[in-house]
Design brief:
The chain has about 190 residues and is of the alpha/beta class. It has one domain: P-loop containing nucleotide triphosphate hydrolases (Rossmann fold, 3-Layer(aba) Sandwich), CATH 3.40.50.300. About 55% of the residues lie in helices and about 15% in strands. The protein has a 5-stranded parallel sheet, with helices on both faces.
């Protein structure tokens, strides 16, 4: 466990393309922690189907019962367990989570990924993960739920922004460029 561990939080609306940054980071030797996995695991422990509604309710319930930074607190030990000295955290949702990560990791930086609602809906619709929306109404409800926990604030406060409206290869190249800038700044 090194106090010098670089931790990069990735924030973005569902379907924005956070996984592009995560995959680029993985190829660059980062350990990976996915915050949504913690919520999906909790839903499974409660015996709930991993639908968008159930996963969303579990996310809100965890924050209500354990505080706004509940999921970040649950992920911190997983970050420390990673053998890599640089770790990407996929799915930061609020400034409370950002502050929680900063308490544990002095080298914590945020990368936001942005894409239009139409692009995001299409990506989620065709990805077909169990908690992805099946129609526009469910997509819109999920967006509002995510924004209600402070996702927009976390996006606004990110140090780096990747706009993901182009081809996948362009987004991958942008992600690598951003991660190199982060490393240049934080891993001297």
């Amino acid at each position: 466990m090194s106090a010098d561990k670089l931790v990069v939080g990735v924030v973005g609306m569902p379907g924005a393309g956070k996984s592009v940054v995560v995959n680029a980071a993985k190829a660059m030797g980062y350990g990976i922690v996915v915050m949504g996995d913690e919520v999906r695991e909790e839903a499974k422990r409660k015996g709930l189907e991993p639908t968008p509604e159930n996963v969303g309710l579990v996310m809100l319930d965890l924050r209500r019962l354990e505080g706004e930074a509940a999921i970040a607190k649950r992920c911190i030990p997983k970050i420390w367990e990673k053998p890599e000295n640089k770790v990407i955290v996929d799915g930061v949702r609020s400034l409370a989570e950002v502050e929680e990560f900063k308490k544990s990791f002095p080298k914590f930086v945020m990368v936001a990924v942005h894409a239009s609602p139409e692009a995001r809906f299409n990506r989620l619709f065709y990805r077909r993960r169990s908690d992805d929306p099946k129609d526009w109404q469910i997509f819109h409800e999920r967006d509002l739920r995510e924004l209600s926990v402070g996702l927009g604030n976390a996006i606004a406060m990110a140090e780096y922004m990747l706009v993901n409206e182009e081809r996948l290869d362009v987004a991958k190249r942008k992600a690598v460029e951003i991660l190199r800038k982060v490393e240049e700044k934080w891993m001297r």
